[in-house]
Amino acid sequence: MSAAIEVRGLSKRFGTVVALEDVGVRVEFGRVVGFLGPNGAGKSTLMRALLGLIRPDAGEALIAGRPYARLYAPGTRVGAVLDIASAHPRMTARAHLCTNAALGGAARSRVDDVLALVGAEPYADRRIGTFSTGMRQRLALATAMLGDPDILVLDEPSNGLDPGGIAWLRSFLRGFADAGGAVLLSSHVLHDVQHTVDDVTLIDRGRTVWAGRLEDLVTHDAPLEDAFLRLTQNGGRP
Ligand SMILES: Nc1ncnc2c1ncn2[C@@H]1O[C@H](COP(=O)(O)OP(=O)(O)OP(=O)(O)O)[C@@H](O)[C@H]1O
């Protein structure tokens, strides 16, 4: 069986900026992979290439063995949270979800399911323009889950979530993977990542600096943050 996500040899330049140079990442079903790196390391660029939003200069990015553009009913295979600002501010959360359900071919009944799933029912009928960052994150995740996908690609999904929201997201992702799903997750909240992921791919300035199982990177007396600071240039500091 194909891996849920398989990225090999991905390279991408923007003008003179090398965003990615020969980067790979693999996510098996049943696993949560932390895709980590300092600001500007190339994480969002790889995720965007994986979802067919930008064209890489070299390499391939496959979801369940196919490029995103060749997936049949992609919303039922992969859900993504990339840009939480993309929803229309004058729409209510419910209207946004109904529109996305119709566009993606999901049943209307999924709207109530995903609102309940992310705990967004109390503000389902409010305009998105009035939402806090955490409310937007929950709505973005609800949108990603509309098609009931078995693969999730999440760019900093805990950004703006309160402690209860972060704990909820952690257990949601664990349950999702334990039920056979696959998650590629970027985050800067390393103590949370350490309790969420099975595997880590760490990149710095567009290049892979470490990839493998979390337990091979982190020990009891050396948390993930220590490994991150040791392996990345200046530990991400300017
Ligand atoms: N559309 C673009 N045009 C020009 N440069 C870009 C573009 N998108 C990304 N870059 C550059 O590519 C590099 C990688 O950016 P990217 O957003 O992938 O990093 P990131 O790891 O997601 O960072 P962060 O943790 O800050 O979100 C950066 O130098 C960024 O400025």
UniProtKB/TrEMBL annotation:
Keyword hit for Repeat: no
Keyword terms of this UniProt record: ATP-binding, Nucleotide-binding, Transport
GO molecular function: ATP binding; ATP hydrolysis activity
ABC transporter domain sequence ranges: 5-230
UniProt-listed SMART domains: AAA
Pfam assignment, any one: ABC_tran
Family: Belongs to the ABC transporter superfamily.
Protein name (Swiss-Prot/TrEMBL): ATP-binding cassette domain-containing protein
Organism: Agromyces archimandritae
